[in-house]
Amino acid sequence: MRVSMKFPGEDTGPEGNVRARGYGITCVLEDGQVLEKAAANISVVRGTLSAQRAAAMSSRGRGSIDPKGGQPYAAAAMSLVFHSAHPLIPTLRADVRLFQVGDEAWYGGGCDLTPSYLDEADTQQFHRYWKDACDKYKPELYGELKDWCDRYFYIPARKEHRGVGGLFFDDMSSGEAGFDVEAFVRDVGDGILPSWLPIVERHRDQPFTEAQRNWQLLRRGRYIEFNLLYDRGIKFGLDGGRIESIMVSAPPLIAWKYNVTPQPGSAEEEVMRVLQQPRAWA
Amino acid sequence: MRVSMKFPGEDTGPEGNVRARGYGITCVLEDGQVLEKAAANISVVRGTLSAQRAAAMSSRGRGSIDPKGGQPYAAAAMSLVFHSAHPLIPTLRADVRLFQVGDEAWYGGGCDLTPSYLDEADTQQFHRYWKDACDKYKPELYGELKDWCDRYFYIPARKEHRGVGGLFFDDMSSGEAGFDVEAFVRDVGDGILPSWLPIVERHRDQPFTEAQRNWQLLRRGRYIEFNLLYDRGIKFGLDGGRIESIMVSAPPLIAWKYNVTPQPGSAEEEVMRVLQQPRAWA
Questions:
Q1: Which residues form the signal peptide (chains A, B) (predicted)?
Q2: Which of A224, A228, A255 has the CB atom closest to B253's CB atom?
Q3: What is the pLDDT of residues B80-114, one digit of tens each?
Q4: What sign results for the dihedral spanned by CA atoms A7, A13, A15, A20?
Q5: How would you class A99 by CB atoms within 10 Å of its CB: exposed for 0-12, middle for 13-18, buried for 19 or more?
Q6: Number of domains observed in the structure of chain A
Q7: Is B78 in contact with B97 (CB distance < 8 Å)?
Q8: Would you call B205 an interface residue with chain A, using a CB distance cutoff of 8 Å?
């Protein structure tokens, strides 16, 4: 097991015309017995909006942002990913983030599951956990964020979703949402471990085969395809961000084989079906 | 060892407003003793230029192409990659391609080396081979295509080149180049194996350590980062192409570790230095 931490307090580099000041913490556990790799990033940045970024945000519905830029902003984010050594324990990804301009704050975040094998009880328990968390705020909230997650974690070139979903949201403000979004995002942050740990406990002592491990390594290929080809957060981060903090989400070991097609009726085919056609779970 | 072939004779999907007709062969060898993965793609496509594609080509200096589109075209490409099981044998990537509109033909291609460890004799031999091949056509050709290769296979987020280079070129026509480009491209195709096999022969029976193998798996992470984040051919192919034929270039097994920094004076540091600062080799 290897634990690394970086707390640079560094200049995060150019953001448009001005330099933003910020710091970050990256914390990594590698080669753990259950967690083959676990990584968490925290970053806090302050800067002045460039015209380009302000125009993009304004057009995405943040109406109070001056599209000409020049306003000071603050941003904070916490993200994490757990890649399990056990092929029956799904990968967990989660984040919460805040973007503040003047008195207004927009929140984003989510928590989602990427299994190599479908376990219906795991998936239902995970989604029910997040439905309960959402129901405290708005009856339709879970359904909206579940659909958003299915849409976001999608690999068009494969016609596959990356996993069995969960929650995903962005640009959410209390004014528009009609509830206390900060409280909701705190609940999301607090819910990450409780939503996942029961799944870990159920599987960590189960035996598994080399064939299951090999399938897990192949499925991780899709995980990195999504991250590098499509993920907006990674594309944004690569533009001047700290590369090792961005790529820390990569699975620790990945395999590619040509044109692998699971046997009809196999457990491998079962998970592919749900990745191709998301289901209702809660 | 597993050898797969696909010869679909299939419709390659939408290209702008019209559908192009074409076929492809993908041939893969997996788990070979020397070649952990070897893959070759051949594709031949005929279609009608869309306005979008014609405008892009015309602006890239193909002056005889009508930017409004509508002209028939033909395209053919052969590409291959050899990922060695041995960490002292570099990855070889090569391709030749042709794009034809009316009586005019534009060629592209290249051949480049991605080692995990720097072997100066290998690298010199490889570059000298390609310099000799270029010198038959134009004295400054090798230097131009060597520099093009260094520029193309670059990972800005890492400030690293993917490998030690070779040749890379695109949009080359006999009219502009002032020599017989078709003959040159045939020489490139014929030279791929002779430029690489002596390197394989020198190393294939050398012993290697687990640490060297692990370093190779980490370096393959950079290979896939380049392919998925930056490679133009892959981005183009993902837009309607056959995904398994595109992703066949992926290394068979890849590892990521956080913030790996080679020891000063180590062989791992030596290769990093040349990836950060390309050298003259021929």
A1: none
A2: A255
A3: 999 999 999 999 999 999 999 988 899 999 999 99
A4: positive
A5: buried
A6: 1
A7: yes
A8: no
> Looking at the domain assignment, is residue B256 inside a domain?
no
pLDDT at B110: 98
Contact (CB<8Å) B158/A243: yes
**What's the mean pLDDT in B160-189?**
96
- The CATH number assigned to the domain holding A19 equals 3.40.1500.10
CB-based burial label for B55 (10 Å; 0-12, 13-18, 19+): middle
Residue A282 located in a structural domain: no
Lowest-confidence pick of A223-237, B140-154, B176-190: A223-237
Residue A252 lies in a domain: no
Q: Check CB contact of B259 with chain A, cutoff 8 Å.
A: yes
B157 with A221: Cβ contact below 8 A = no
What is d(CA B128, CA B199) in angstroms, rounded to the nearest whole number?
13
Structure token digits, residue A199: 């799944």
In the chain, the amino acid numbered A169 is F
**B79 belongs to a structural domain:** yes
Check residue B44 and report its DSSP letter.
E
- Is residue A77 less than 8 Å (CB to CB) from chain B? no
Cβ atoms within 10 Å of A223's Cβ, excluding its own: 23
B18: alpha, beta or left, given left = phi > 0 and alpha = psi -120 to 50?
A: beta
- ipTM of the prediction: 0.90
Q: Sort out which chain A residues have CB atoms less than 8 A from B257's CB and list them.
A: 30, 252
Contacts of A126 (CB under 8 A, 6+ apart): A113, A164, A166, A195, A196, A199, A281
Cβ <8 Å between B259 and A251: no
Q: How far is CA B227 from the centre of its chain?
A: 10
Check residue B19 and give its pLDDT: 46
Average pLDDT, chain A: 91
Question: Quick one: pLDDT at residue B6?
Answer: 60
Question: What single string gives the DSSP state of each residue in A58-98?
Answer: HHTT-TTS-TT---EEEEEEEEEEEEESSTTSPEEEEEEEE
pLDDT band at A14 (very low <50, low <70, confident <90, very high): very low
Average pLDDT over residues B203-231: 97
Could you report the per-residue pLDDT of B24-37, keeping only the tens digit for each? 889 999 999 999 99
**How distant, in Å, are the alpha carbons of A51, A93, A126, A212, B160 from that of A112?**
33, 6, 9, 21, 33
CA B90 to chain centre: 13
How confident is the model at residue B200, as a pLDDT? 98
Interchain proximity B4–A238, CB inside 8 Å: no
Report the predicted TM-score, pTM, of the whole model to 2 decimal places: 0.92
C-alpha distance from residue A246 to each of A53, A93, A214, A240, B167 (Å): 20, 13, 26, 11, 31
**Whole domain around residue A128: which residue ranges?**
2-207+218-246+269-276
* Percent of chain B topping pLDDT 90: 74
C-alpha dist (Å) from residue B249 to A33, B11, B20, B79, B185: 32, 22, 23, 9, 21
**Nearest CB neighbour to A158, from listed B243, B251, B255:** B243
